[in-house]
Amino acid sequence: MRARQVRVHWIWSALAGVAAIVAAEEIPIALLFPVESRRALSVLEWVLTLVFVADLVFHLQLAGKLHVGGAARQSGRSSRYGKAWLVVDALAAIPFQILPVPAVFRLLLLAKLGRVGQLMHRWRQHDVHRANLLRLLFFLFWLALLAHWIACGWLALRGIAPEFDPLTNYVRAIYWCVTTLTTVGYGDITPVGNAQMLFAVAVMMLGAAVYGYTIANVASILANIDPAKVRYQEMVEKMTAFMKYRNVPPHLQRRILEYNTYLWEKRLGYDESTAISGLPPSLRSDVLLFLNGDIIERVPLFRGASEEFVRAIALEMRPTIFTPGDYIIRAGEQGHEMYFISRGRVEIVSPDGKAVYATLTDGDFFGEMALLHDQPRSASARATDYCDLYLLEKATFNHVLDRFPEFASHIAEVAGKRRQGNQPASEAPE
Ligand code: CMP
C-alpha cells in the first residue's frame, strides 16, 4: 500500500473504531432506558449504522483489492481470518433498530470491538517507542469499558429505581461496580436476591483477577516505559556495588561513572555493535553505513572516496568512547588498531606526557604509524575531551591498504610527515 493509502486506512480504521466504542457504550444504556433514550439516541444509532455500513464496504473493497493484487499468496488460514472479520463487519452493519427483532440483538454489534482490539494491536506494533505506554492506556480503556458494562448489568438485574433520575441510577451503579471490583465494598448498596448476589460474587472474583493482573502488569509496564533507562540504572548500581567491593579509588570510580553517563547521553547506553549483530548481513551493512555516516562525512579522506571504499571501511569501523584524561594509545606499546575522530580532541604527546606534538580533532586520524611500519607506538594519544572515536583493526587496515592504493598512499604520506615532524632537528633529513 502506498503512504497515502496507508494514511487513509489508519484514519478510517480510527473513525470506525471510535464508532464501535460509542456503540459499546450506547447499546447497554439504550437497552436499560428505552423510553428516555429513544429520541436522543435514535439519531446516534443511525449514524453508527451508516459508519458501520461504510466500514463494511471499505473492508470488502480492501479484501477485493488484496485478492486482485495477488492475495492468492495469502494462506488459507489468513483468508479464513479475513472472512471471519467480514462477518463481524456485516453483523455490525445490520440496522437492528428497524428490524422486528428483540432490542437485545443489538448487543451483537459489540463484536465490532474486536476491530478496536485489532487497531490497538497494530498501533502498538507501529509505535514501538511508546508500546508500553500504549499498553497501559489500552488496559485502562478496557477496564473502564468493563466497569461500564458491569454497571449496566447491575442495573438490568436490580431494575431502575423510580425515585432517581436515569443519571443518578447510572452513577449509583458505577459506584457499586467500582467499590465491588476493587473489593472496597462499603455495603451501602447491597445485593438482594440470588441473581444479584451471584452477580456480585462474579464481580468480586473478577475484581480479584483484575487486581492481580493490574499489580503484575502495571508495575512491569511502568518499569518498561523507558527500558534503556532502567537498564542503565541497573548497570550503574551494579557497577557502584562492584567498585565499593573492590575498593576502587574514588578518581577511577568517578571516571567510570562519567564514561557511563556519557555513553547513556550519547547512545542511551546501547552498544551499537551488539544491538545490530543479529541482523542479516545486507541489512546490517546498510544500517552500519547509516550509523557510521557521520564519521564518513567528517573525515576528509573518506569524503570524495568511492562508494566501494566507503562501504569497505564503514562496515569494519567500530565506535568507541573515551573520557577526558584517558590514554587511548601509550608510546612504546604494540599497535593493534588505528582511530578516526568523530567528535572530540586528542593530544599526541611524548612518552613522558610532557611535550604535546599535536592536537587532533574532528575528522583527523591517528595510530596509523605503528600499523604501517610494524613498529611500537611512536607517541601517546590522550583524550582532552569526551571523544567519539571509530576504531579500525590492524587486519582490516592491512586489507584496505591492499585493496585501495590511494588510501595507502595518503596514509603513508601523512605518517611520513608526522614522523619527520617528531624527529629532533639534527636527525631530520636535509
Ligand atoms: P602510532 O605511532 O601508531 O601511535 C601514536 C600516533 O600518534 C601515531 O601513530 C600517529 O598517528 C600520531 N602522531 C605521532 N606524531 C604525530 C604528529 N606530530 N602529529 C600528529 N600525529 C602524530
Structure overview:
Strand 4 and strand 5 (356-360) form a beta hairpin. The strands form 2 sheets. A 4-stranded antiparallel sheet has the order 1-8-3-6. It starts with a helix and ends in an 8-residue tail after the last helix. It folds into 3 domains: 1-126; 227-270, Orthogonal Bundle (Helix Hairpins), CATH 1.10.287; 279-419, Jelly Rolls, CATH 2.60.120.10. The chain has helices at 3-32, 34-68, 76-92, 113-126, 131-158, 166-181, 193-224, 227-245, 250-267, 272-275, 281-291, 293-298, 300-303, 307-314, 368-373, 394-403, 405-422, and strands at residues 318-322, 327-329, 337-343, 346-349, 356-360, 365-366, 380-383, 387-393. The protein is an alpha+beta fold and 430 residues long. 64% of the residues lie in helices and 9% in strands. The protein binds adenosine-3',5'-cyclic-monophosphate (CMP).
Quick take:
With 430 residues, the protein is of the alpha+beta class.
